[in-house]
Amino acid sequence: MLIDEVKIVEPPAAGTLTIAGPAFFYRAPASGSVDRFKLQVAGENNRMRGTSLIVVDVSIR
Q: What is the pTM for the complete model shown?
């Protein structure tokens, strides 16, 4: 799998999200809550290009 790009489609409402190359880092707020964000990953696997949408639901306790 060759990852070309990771981008934020929908940022989190409560925490902070940082993209660093093919990785991402989520930092939750100090208080308990729920959060959600969406990422899009573009790349190539077995010479086939494509994109994936990743939806992350976070439950902070």
A: 0.84
